[in-house]
Design goal:
Layout: E1 5-10, E2 13-18, H1 30-43, E3 49-54, H2 66-74, H3 82-89, E4 95-99, E5 102-104, H4 106-113, E6 116-120, E7 124-126, H5 140-148, H6 150-159, E8 163-164, H7 165-171, E9 176-178, H8 184-198, H9 218-235, H10 241-254, H11 257-272, H12 275-289, E10 308-311, H13 315-326, E11 331-334, H14 338-357, H15 363-371, E12 373-376, E13 387-390, H16 396-409, E14 415-418, H17 425-429, E15 438-443, E16 452-457, H18 463-475, E17 479-484, H19 491-507, H20 512-522, H21 528-535, H22 537-546, H23 560-566, E18 580-581, E19 587-588, H24 591-603, H25 613-634, H26 640-650, H27 660-667, H28 669-683, H29 691-698, H30 708-713
Parallel strand pairs: 2-3, 3-4, 4-6, 5-7, 6-9, 10-11, 10-13, 11-12, 13-14, 14-15, 16-17
Antiparallel strand pairs: 1-2, 7-8, 15-16, 18-19
Helix pairs in contact: 4-5, 5-6, 5-10, 6-9, 6-10, 9-10, 10-11, 12-26, 13-14, 19-25, 20-25, 25-28, 28-29
This protein binds (2S,3S)-3-hydroxy-2-methylbutanoyl-COA and nicotinamide-adenine-dinucleotide.
Length: 714
């Protein structure tokens, strides 16, 4: 077994190097090995001080998250690292923690149990546990307020966002910043020098530091904690862990350290065995799993991407060009006329200006990014591009024309991608001489904000093209999910029945606001009717009109949005849709519309009735699940977790519910199937249960198991 910890000595300083790839998690055996190394250093008279450092790209990125699944399965929550960290703190010789990459969760807790912390100026620290539905469980909520103060600790533990080393230095967590660290040995040398400076001097144990806990009156502390709770409720709506984290930080201000630790433990265990935590840890690993494509080996060679081009500078094209510029990749941006180009560039500049205003980055950063964008009205320089993303109007004829041109002007090894949201990648590829290099890259609006990228595999798309785009998605800070080439791919194909049910519910008498409220309270970022107004009702209307010939006769279709569009109500862009909107796009109910819809429904003989929030949620969410089951069975998604990652990152599905497929598994597919069958009896063919849902329900299995058993039997 590879050594988890290495012990070396330099100039009277023991260097303890943690080496547990890929992220030096405090997995089984790691803390024991560190403990042994510290004992060795304590026993060696020649050792004056100790440096603890991580091998590879990072310090310690936390406890081993894989261990939590075992704890949950055994309903046993091990002792954790609390005792080990007290031992570090009580070490007889100064312990200097040398941080590079990330010191997250248990990694920061380890660092804070040390007596001093030096960090590469580019490092990040954080307590991201709430993103896993838990709270720091090894003293983080007790030591962090002692170093950084109550407000900073409450914010870091309840929101889980990383903090740059420079800000951590200003907050008092880091004692020394090391500039110009280009490799681990630079940091090691600086840490050893720092350790020699503190050797022989009295050290302070973090747990004994209380000056920052009582910097103000109890009333002030209460106000700080109340603000933190308000912020957590707003930013992480529907979650328990962020509030539990603040309860634990509060304990640091009211009781002695050891009782604060006990309170933290209590809250940690409560959160660990929660459904919120199961869902979020599932999503954590699901987001890493999407990159694993069974028939595209990890070592598949990828094409280097040094430059890009985007066709169309409209809503999507401009955002996509920003995504490349943000990743430092020079990008050509082509439009069909100057006015459209100027409009696109102006939108990009104002988006950057907003980011600068919000302090996300400096004006200099914004200028550098815009400088990477080369506007053009021709394909002249397209031979420079390693990848081209087409984002012109959603018309097959136009896209074929553009791809035929791209196939002619681009280098033979360039990747040709389309941002189409509904059209067939295979049909677009047929317009080229190189279908193996054609792929779908379906960004989500606004493209420079939304993390999701559906990577659409065409029948001829080569594995190299897929591997290159999957790797590129990570470089563009996107979550790239490989999907098959069916109508609407995965996300939009499932969204269609979800939105259909929302309209039906209103047509059957549900109040417009009540439908949105029910899904919002369920945890969706926004209700389905408000989303429709945001995206524009006319987009769906145009697509429905284009596909009217595909509608099955006698099958109920929603009519309300078509009627709204016939009235010119396209949503926010016309300041009226399902709701009314003022100049600032603030939403207000429109009773006139509610009445109109009721009238239209009566004309169509649709009985009006009271509809509960429960029914609203079940019909909308189970519509997602049923269509998701079809997609899985038809092989347009590799695994259920891919669908969940798509919905969490592209459609505002609450991550603390794991995504639609995980949510259905948590309820139990038998129960879901029975209700879908009931909807089938009530509403007909549109609710025909997916064969996979029926089979798994009858076999007592879950979506999570689907695919594994086949693989197991293969
Ligand atoms: N435990 C186990 N595996 C982990 C892990 C962890 N903490 N962090 C990452 N991995 C795996 C990951 O699944 C992937 O595996 C590989 O490492 C590379 O990860 C006691 C209770 C550090 C910023 O929440 O945020 O400490 O797919 O693809 O993009 O209070 O990983 O290759 O098989 O994400 O370079 C708190 C979680 C834990 C940090 C690196 N810590 N990790 O990002 O690589 S709870 C976290 C990250 C805790 C204490 C509590 C990121 C990263 P595979 P990657 P990356
Ligand atoms: P848009 O109408 O805002 O922009 C399209 C742009 O393409 C226009 O500015 C137009 O001038 C330009 N254009 C047309 N022909 C061109 C040509 N030959 N060369 C260069 N530019 C040309 O449309 P959009 O909303 O940005 O959609 C673009 C594509 O992205 C569509 O395929 C759409 O389905 C897809 N998409 C849209 C969204 C969304 O929410 N809007 C989300 C995902 C995908």
């Amino acid at each position: 077994m590879a050594e988890l910890v290495r012990y070396t000595e330099e100039d009277g300083v023991a260097v303890v190097t943690i080496d547990n790839p890929p992220v030096n998690a405090l997995g089984p055996g790691v803390t024991e090995a560190i403990d042994a190394a510290l004992s060795r250093a304590e026993a060696d008279a020649g050792v004056l001080a100790i440096v603890v450092i991580g091998a590879g790209k990072t310090f310690v990125a936390g406890a081993d998250i894989k261990e939590f699944a075992k704890m949950r399965a055994s309903r046993q929550c091990g002792p954790g690292h609390t005792e080990f960290l007290l031992r570090v703190e009580d070490c007889a010789k100064p312990v200097v923690m040398a941080i590079h990459g990330t010191a997250f969760g248990g990694g920061l807790e380890l660092a804070m149990a040390g007596h001093c912390r030096v960090a590469d100026a580019n490092a990040q620290i954080g307590q991201p546990e709430v993103k896993l539905g838990i709270i720091p469980g090894a003293g983080g909520t007790q030591r962090l307020p002692r170093l950084a103060g109550i407000a900073k600790a409450a914010e870091m533990c309840s929101l889980g966002e990383p903090v740059k080393a420079r800000d951590a230095f200003d907050a008092g967590v880091i004692d020394k910043l090391i500039e110009g660290v280009s490799r681990e040995s630079d940091l090691r040398a600086a840490a050893v020098a720092f350790a020699r400076e503190v050797a022989g001097k009295p050290v302070r144990k973090t747990r004994e530091r209380t000056e920052k806990l009582h910097a103000r009156t109890a009333a002030d502390n209460a106000a700080i904690l109340a603000n933190a709770r308000d912020a957590a409720r707003k930013k992480l709506r529907g979650r328990r862990a962020p509030l539990a984290a603040i309860d634990a930080v509060e304990a640091a201000t009211t009781v002695p350290f050891d009782r604060g630790l006990a309170r933290e433990r209590e809250l940690f265990v409560e959160c660990l065995f929660s459904q919120e935590s199961s869902a979020l840890i599932y999503a954590f690993f699901g987001e890493r799993e999407v990159a694993k494509i069974p028939d595209v080996p990890k070592e598949m060679p990828v094409r280097p991407i040094h430059s890009a081009a985007v066709v169309g500078a409209g809503t999507m094209g401009g955002g996509i060009a920003m995504v490349f510029a943000n990743a430092g990749i020079p990008v050509l941006l082509k439009e069909s006329d100057q006015a459209a180009l100027d409009r696109g560039l102006a939108t990009m500049r104002s988006n950057y200006a907003n980011s600068v205003k919000r302090g996300r980055f400096t004006q200099e950063d914004a200028d550098q990014r815009m400088a990477l964008v080369t506007p053009t009205l021709s394909y002249d320089d397209f031979s420079r591009a390693d990848v081209v993303i087409e984002a012109a109007f959603e018309s097959m004829a136009l896209k074929k024309e553009i791809f035929a041109e791209l196939s002619r002007v681009c280098r033979p090894d360039a990747i040709l991608a389309s941002n189409t949201s509904t059209l067939s990648i295979d049909e677009i590829a047929d317009a080229t001489t190189r279908p193996e290099a054609v792929i779908g890259t379906h960004f989500f609006s606004p493209a420079n904000v939304m993390r999701l990228l559906e990577v659409v595999r065409g029948a001829a798309t080569s594995k190299e093209t897929i591997a290159t785009c999957m790797q590129l998605s990570k470089r563009l800070s996107k979550v790239g999910v490989l999907v098959g080439n069916c109508r609407g791919f995965v996300g939009n194909r499932m969204f269609h029945p979800y939105r259909r049910e929302a309209q039906f519910l209103v047509e059957e008498g549900a109040n417009i606001e009540a439908v949105d409220r029910a899904l919002f309270d369920f945890g969706m970022a926004m209700g389905p009717l408000s989303v429709a107004d945001l995206a524009g009702l006319d987009i769906g209307w145009r697509i429905r009109k284009e596909h009217r010939h595909l509608e099955k006769p006698g099958v109920r279709q929603p009519f309300a949005e078509d009627r709204l569009c016939e009235m010119g109500r396209y949503g926010q862009k016309t300041r009226a849709g399902w709701y009314r909107y003022d100049e600032q796009r603030r939403q207000s109910p429109d009773t006139e519309i509610a009445e109109l819809v009721r009238g239209w429904s009566r004309e169509k003989g649709i009985e009006q009735r009271e509809i509960s929030s429960q029914e609203i949620v079940e019909r909308c969410i189970y519509a997602l699940v049923n269509e998701g089951a079809r997609i899985l069975e038809e092989g347009f998604a590799l695994r259920a977790s891919d669908i969940d990652i798509i919905y969490i990152n592209g459609y505002g599905f609450p991550s603390f519910r794991g995504g639609p497929m995980w949510y259905a598994d948590a309820i139990g597919l038998k129960k879901v199937y029975d209700l879908v069958s009931e909807f089938y009896r009530q509403h007909g063919e549109i609710w025909q249960p997916a064969p996979l849902l029926k089979r798994l329900a009858e076999e007592g299995k879950s979506f999570a198991e689907f695919g594994t058993e086949e693989k197991a039997s293969a």
